[in-house]
C-alpha cells in the first residue's frame, strides 16, 4: 500500500472520530436552554416572578392575552419588547450576566408609570 493511501485512510479515520465525538455530545446551549412563556393580561404577568440561573441561556416567549396594549421590560438587562396588541407575541433570548432581583414591568404609554410589575430573579445556584 502506498504511503499517500495510508495517510488518507488515517486522516479519514481521525476525521470520522472527531465528527462522531462532536455529534455525540450535546452542546452546552442545548443542554441548559430554558424556555419560559410569560402571559400578559390586563391585570399583570403570569408568572409574575421568574427565577433563572446566572449565565444560562433563557428564551422568553411573551404573549399578550389581554384586551389592552402591553409591553414587557427588564431594564437592567436592556430588554424592552415593542408594544404588543391583543394576541401579539414577542420572543427574547439572552443569558443573565448578573445575579440579583430585578423589576420587570409593562409601561405601554412610556410615561415611567408602569401599569404593573413583577420580579426577575437571577441566582448562581
From TrEMBL:
Which SUPFAM superfamilies is this protein grouped with?
Answer: Cupredoxins
Please state every residue range assigned to the domain named EfeO-type cupredoxin-like: 18-122
Keyword vocabulary terms for this entry = Signal
Q: Signal sequence span per UniProt?
A: 1-31
Q: What Pfam families does the record tag this protein with? A: Cupredoxin_1
The protein's matches in Gene3D superfamilies, at most eight in alphabetical order, are given as: Cupredoxins - blue copper proteins (2.60.40.420)
Name of the protein in its database record: Cupredoxin domain-containing protein
- Originating organism: Alicyclobacillus fastidiosus
Amino acid at each position: 500500500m502506498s504511503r499517500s493511501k495510508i495517510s488518507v485512510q488515517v486522516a479519514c479515520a481521525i476525521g470520522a472520530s472527531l465528527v462522531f465525538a462532536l455529534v455525540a455530545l450535546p452542546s452546552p446551549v442545548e443542554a441548559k436552554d430554558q424556555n419560559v412563556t410569560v402571559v400578559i393580561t390586563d391585570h399583570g404577568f403570569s408568572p409574575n416572578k421568574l427565577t433563572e440561573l446566572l449565565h444560562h441561556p433563557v428564551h422568553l416567549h411573551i404573549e399578550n392575552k389581554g384586551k389592552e396594549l402591553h409591553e414587557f421590560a427588564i431594564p437592567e438587562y436592556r430588554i424592552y419588547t415593542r408594544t404588543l396588541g391583543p394576541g401579539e407575541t414577542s420572543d427574547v433570548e439572552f443569558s443573565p450576566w448578573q445575579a440579583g432581583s430585578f423589576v420587570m414591568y409593562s409601561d405601554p404609554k412610556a410615561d415611567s408609570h408602569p401599569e404593573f410589575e413583577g420580579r426577575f430573579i437571577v441566582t448562581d445556584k
